[in-house]
Amino acid sequence: MVQSWRAVTWLEKPPCRPKIVISSDEQRLPVPPRHWGQWLQLPLIGRLARGYNAARFAGTLAMLAAVVVCNFFGRHLVAMTLTAGALALGTVLTPAALQAMAARLEAAGHRVALGSAALAARRRVAELIVTADPLGNRVELFHGPEVAEKPFIPGRAISGFRTGPLGMGHAVLNVPRVEDVLPFYREVLGFGLSDWVENPFRAYFMHVNGRHHSLALIETGKASLHHLMMECLSLDDVGQGYDIALSEEGRIGTTLGRHTNDWMTSFYARTPGGFLVEYGWGGRHIEPATWQPVRMDSGPSLWGHDRHWAGPEAVAKGREMRMAAAARGERAPVQVLPGNHTLMPGACPWWDGLRGAAE
Length: 359
Prior knowledge:
Elements: E1 8-10, H1 43-49, H2 62-65, E2 67-72, E3 75-80, H3 95-107, E4 113-114, H4 117-123, E5 125-132, E6 138-148, E7 169-175, H5 178-188, E8 192-197, E9 203-207, E10 215-219, E11 224-232, H6 235-246, E12 252-259, E13 265-270, E14 276-281, E15 294-296, E16 301-304, H7 312-327, H8 349-358
Parallel strand pairs: 7-10, 8-15, 11-14
Antiparallel strand pairs: 1-6, 2-3, 4-5, 5-6, 7-11, 8-9, 9-10, 12-13, 12-16, 13-14
């Protein structure tokens, strides 16, 4: 695979180091190993993920640093860089905004460290700060990402990924208790609540832009990464990825299906690191300024998504909830982009009547 990382320019000139008061040396906070990238090059994950196109991510390399996941000497680490208005501080973090966020974190009692020049170089950003959520998950905030002049060459023929101002996708964390973690992301970092579920498990979904959720917390009694999501531009890319996963025994963690809240059609693949990767298409777009969160009572999926990773009881419960939702007539519109669909002419009076009423 060819990568054009050497031809880079700064979005802005590297600024003078802001006067951020830090409470500890950076090395005292959890630091991922140097070769964290290998976790995205594992046989299946590499085949699914290496088609990420830098040009489709607003020209930034934040796609590599957006969610870094690794299991290192038995410790679960998550490093997240939040961009595109994630902190309600503007469309891109500036040096002043980064300094303000560091002060905000310190005021809330969270230790903050200024990332070293070496770490910033590895992340390919001008500057970053490092902190941790209440469970110890590493969180990185940055400004000044580098810009690649040329896109990736995909590892297989795919249409690309839906990223840009929406970020790389989403991350979902296992947490012992939602209440112990939710205030950090909502009240300190400024995430908006999209919706939540209480059955068959407790989960809270949060947004930072038009993507329905960029982060979610699932109450499972443990602290770890549950999954990462990547959203394709074509449904066929997901289907072909599903074929790849099906060819490897035990690789499917959750079967192909469609979610009730973000309307994503996806499947989940197991990784050697112990977490899942959701590979999807057709995610829901919301308007953060007017969005009103609601409790979702129909279960996590409209159809499919047998959660084999959770055991036979969870699979049976999920099927029961899906059948009940289907009996109530629950459906969701398909989310499409210009160029990836064709409108069919009306051929059914019943359907045309429903469409006319909706319009």
